[in-house]
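User: Good morning. I'm curious how NDP would be positioned relative to this chain. Could you predict the structure with it bound?
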Amino acid sequence: LARPLTGRVAVVTGASSGIGEATAQVLAAQGARVALLARRGERLAGHAARIEEAGGTALALPTDVTDPASLASAAAEVRSRLGRVDLVVNNAGLALPDLLDGSTGPNWQRMIDVNVTGAFAVVEAFVPDLLAAAAERGHADLVNISSAAAQSVLPGFAGYAATKAAFSHLSRNLRARLSPADVRVTNIEPGTIDTELRDHIEDPAISAAVQEAVGSIDGIPSGTDVAELIAFTVGRPRHVNLSHISVLPTREA
Ligand code: NDP
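Assistant: Good morning! Here's the predicted structure, ligand included:
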């Protein structure tokens, strides 16, 4: 079996479910040593155990990306137990509705905290590793999981769309900073993917409307479909940077 990512050290945020869980599994199956970060430690431990049972190397690190101390201790732990990081999948995120009339509470603030402040903090925590790794081994990778919402109007989800627009724009600007040093930045904007993302919507009417819209799409990619795309991207030769990728259900309008 080909293991093209052998020797690489990867960090995946939001690895307790969905795209992040699948990405940790696929990167490990291709030979990377993987650190799984998210808040739900029990889930992470289960995923890490399955990776190890399959012959891979995985480290479960309960982490809240909105808590600087938690992130700093996770970064230190990865370095001491797996080595310098050369691949970061910056994936943790929340998609909650915000009607901006007071009825959806502080959802927009929670999304700014996770999707913007948290995502920026992950970049800051690992850029020194990525720069050092690129200098030593030729290249390193930062993969940001933004959203198709960054480019579109999503009724009821203005705050989410705005946080993802900020994230996609960060990717563009980071590329200018990092690509001269051979750190490749990839921004991925998925459309609807079959994960738990929408299960966190508390408002029953909004949840039902979203589930109905999703249910009307004939054929939805899985977290593994996105994970395989990520593995392909980071496996390109060092002079090739897939800088911006949209991945959509074939039948999503
Ligand atoms: P999931 O809800 O399955 O995964 C989200 C992950 O983020 C979980 O592992 C969750 O773990 C983690 N997370 C949330 N808050 C924090 C936090 N404060 N600190 C650390 N981890 C956190 O959904 P997806 O897999 O779909 O989402 C992954 C990314 O993909 C998100 O950024 C999302 O916006 C993006 N995306 C998803 C699409 C979809 O249709 N599914 C479409 C476009 C983009 P825990 O709760 O354990 O902390």
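The chain has seven helices and seven strands. The chain has one domain: 9-243.
Let me know if you'd like a different ligand tried.
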